[in-house]
Design goal:
Two copies of one chain form a homodimer.
Chain A lengths: L1 H8 L2 H11 L11 H11 L3 E3 L6 E3 L1 H20 L3 E2 L5 E2 L1 H5 L2 H4 L4 H5 L4 E2 L4 H11 L8 E10 L14 E11 L2 H22 L5 E4 L11 E9 L4 E12 L1 H6 L2 E3 L5 E3 L1 E8 L1 H10 L16 E5 L7 H17 L4 E3 L7 H10 L4 E5 L1 H5 L2 E6 L5 E5 L3 H27 E3 L3 H9 L3 E6 L3 H11 L7 E6 L20 E8 L1
Helix pairs in contact in A: 2-3, 4-9
GO molecular function, one term (chains A, B): proline-tRNA ligase activity
GO biological process, one term (chains A, B): prolyl-tRNA aminoacylation
EC number (chains A, B): 6.1.1.15
């Protein structure tokens, strides 16, 4: 049976059994064994189930509800920008895929799948032949399309749930403008939406910046991104990217239009995307040794209400109070549920919902019932508060806001503590060894970045540029590049990355 | 260039050119050449673009917005039923796919794609191994999951946009219960939602019924469906299906649970789906020789406002009135847009928006401006009404409701006119020749249905049972089967179908 096989092959499968049987927590800690901790927490938190094809994962409702929360926000925002949703085919004909060498490099699922036609790794080559057909005159511009879909990338050896999977879900926006100015403006509007997804929804601090020539999207003009950082592994992670493609694809696919003056011109294009990777970053940044920690803004259940009966107590009264509490909170638009299962102890339920990362737990026992209060326990810091049921809604709303803010503040504190400013190669190597996110003055030469990669190769993986932040510290006259000693042009973040 | 190739290979491509250049209407009529009319209207109406892989189509924003309107309704309804969304992988490992012979028959994309792993045609075999892992006790039931995704079915020769495509979008619900009663109940709850999508949103009358043993979902216990009918082709079309799988898959995948009595039991399962085919049925039923006709409830634009300036008239005043009218309607939650393009005549714009099927057109000319009124023209019947701008919102809302209702009434009238009740084989053959949807008394024997198919084979395609309607007319004692002469057990709909 695949289900059984999967448990052996599927890594996390076994560990899940443990939990099923005992309800106990994690067998690895975040600090001592981050990798094992991560794959255990996504499984035990019921976000992921390992699948019997390596690199493919089952996204369970607990994960999809988070995805849908971000999607609702982003889809509404891009619709305000007059972006329209569409759906292009999953399959790419090889002719089109071969159009552009740079672009195809790194994207070649068909070679592994041995299919005559390829499955989209991204849709530039799928869509743009039709852009050249649809766009005739300046009145056809701007053309702004987006699609929510699955894409497949087969080429890699060490898959990680959410972070690097062979199939994943994303949105990909593809827009065409008559002027570079319009394209440049949109690139940053979209990047700001990505920042908001990370900072306002997932409570994760990110750095907005521009990718180096070596790290930019193949075939594009320039790439901007939001970069997150995972302190435990000392690795940066590209959170989402907003690319200006310039006119490269327009040339390739002959996307021309007649401008106001009646002259033939070429369009300026952007493409931008964020994926289910966002969820993995959230787990890595906020999760702890008790399991997931979900920011209230994306949690499917914001408050879990648990009855704490005692043998001689009014059990029925306690259960009724739990149901009434859920009703009051739901009425107020708070996502609350009661766990009235009779076959588990309150303690078991506490760990169970802590594992799933529910932001706030409400306990109701005999004393609470007597005092017309509830006991609220925060998932993020364990703080316990007694709340009078008279002020239930205001208090719970306030706590959820505090949790959302606190998760961001703590994450930012930890991230900032990892940032190190260096000026020399020696400082750079030391900081890299300390798993830092390194801000260094750079001459901005491609060969120098290649050289940095070569000189830092090792089992941990080489260092590379993460991004050149839009917020640039002052660069004193005569500052030298940390790696080449040549005059520095800019401050750039460097480090190992996912 | 794929874009160019596509125009030659892709059928509809060329015709699109015609429109682009001239803005004229369709070159085929619905009655004289339905097939050509259909592929022309989906392209010229900008719902579909032909793609350079046969059987794959580009779903343009005009189509996706309709899909999203139905999705918003259905997703909210199933969430009320406590169904949770998830996402399972696109790829199926052959081991799992081979599990069940009956089921696999007809589903074998990998044979054509030559991939070592298959791409899901539907997800029973993808999901159920994990159901067997997740379901342990009666407290794990019911398990109700749904996913919105793409599926691929390669096996067929004559693809048709929306109706039969190699890749399409759908939702697939997969639920497991501890009792058959719960499963039976859900099958009908979901079928009712499908009826509402067709009748309340798409304004298409459907018949709820049960499929014959020959036509039911392979491997299931029984299949219910909503059946629509296309008068022009005289073909029935399966609108959506809600299957009770019984315990067949539970046996296959060992999906067992411990019931309240502590005994090992097997779950009862359902699966149910509707796809982008719904959009094709809508086009076929409501479209006319001027193009698409969209029901207001699914239209991305419900009202198009067009200025009708005259040389000596106050053009600016007219344009302002158009903008103001859109603002007023938008304010009231009506989806309205103004077509202020200066390079097209009002007449050209009329045909353009008629082609796209916008339910209501509002014209504003000098006379309207003078009389503080607008001219409203219905897409469904061409009726023109002058509306005082004082009562704009109420009147427009009322007209949109009337259009929605009228589309359904007219479609029902046409459908009903095609229904023929027959008692004998001779009557059956005659009615089939007249492209009827035939209601006939049947002995309900599989061999007899096979025999009917064999005896009606021909270039038009064989007749088969469409469904046994839940609303059964009285069946007089001693009524004989129209095909076998044996005692009839029920009234069943027959005909050719898609």
């Amino acid at each position: 049976m695949a289900g059984r096989e999967q448990k052996k092959s599927g890594g996390g499968g076994k560990k899940k059994e443990v939990k099923k049987e005992t309800g106990l927590g994690l067998s690895f800690t975040k600090d001592e064994n981050f990798g094992e901790w991560y794959s255990e927490v996504v499984v035990n938190g019921e976000m992921i189930e390992y699948y019997d094809i390596s690199g493919c994962y089952i996204l369970r409702p607990w994960a999809i509800s988070i995805w849908e929360n971000m999607q609702t926000f982003f889809d509404a925002e891009i619709k305000k920008m007059k972006v329209k949703n569409c759906y292009f085919p999953l399959f790419v004909s090889p002719g089109v895929l071969q159009k552009e060498k740079d672009h195809v490099e790194g994207f070649a699922p068909e070679s592994d799948l041995e299919v005559p036609i390829a499955i989209r790794p991204t849709s530039e080559t799928v869509m743009y032949p039709y852009y050249s057909k649809w766009i005739r005159g300046h009145r056809d511009l701007p053309l702004k399309l987006n699609q929510w879909c699955n894409v497949v990338r087969w080429e890699f050896s060490h898959p990680t749930p959410f972070i690097r999977s062979r199939e994943f879900l994303w949105q990909e926006g593809h827009t065409a403008f008559s002027t570079k100015e319009e394209a440049d403006t949109e690139v940053l509007q979209i990047l700001e939406l990505y920042r908001r997804i990370y900072e306002e929804f997932l409570a994760i601090p990110v750095i907005k910046g521009r990718k180096s020539e070596l790290e930019k999207f193949a075939g594009g003009l320039y790439t901007t991104s939001v970069e997150a950082f995972i302190p435990n592994t000392g690795r940066g992670i590209q959170g989402a990217t907003s690319h200006c493609l310039g006119q490269n694809f327009a040339k390739m696919f002959e996307i021309n239009f007649e401008n106001e003056k009646g002259e033939k011109a070429m369009v300026w294009q952007n493409s931008w995307a964020y994926s289910t990777r966002t969820i993995g970053v959230m787990v890595m940044v906020h999760g702890d040794d008790k399991g997931l920690v979900l920011p209230p803004k994306v949690a499917a259940v914001q408050v879990i209400v648990i009855p704490v009966p005692y043998k001689d107590a009014d059990t029925q009264g306690i259960f009724d109070a739990c149901v009434a509490t859920v009703a009051t909170l739901t009425e107020a638009g708070i996502l609350a549920e009661a766990d009235l299962r009779d076959n588990y102890s309150p303690g078991w339920k506490y760990s169970d919902w802590e594992m799933k990362g529910v932001p706030l737990r409400i306990e109701i026992g005999p004393r609470d019932l007597a005092n017309n209060q509830v006991r609220a326990v925060r998932r993020d810091n364990g703080a316990k508060t007694d709340i009078s049921r008279v002020f239930l809604v205001e208090q719970v709303k306030g706590m959820l806001d505090k949790i959302q803010q606190n998760l961001f503040d703590v994450a930012k504190q930890k991230r900032d503590a990892c940032v190190e400013v260096v000026k020399t190669w020696e400082e750079f190597v030391t900081a890299l060894g300390q798993k830092k996110m390194i801000l260094a003055p750079w001459c901005d030469e491609e060969d120098v970045e290649k050289d940095v990669k070569a000189r830092t190769k090792g089992e941990m993986g080489a260092a590379k540029s993460l991004c050149t932040p839009f917020e640039q510290p002052e660069l004193p006259e005569g500052t030298k590049c940390f790696a080449s000693g040549k005059p520095a042009k800019k401050w750039t973040y460097w480090g190992r990355s996912y």
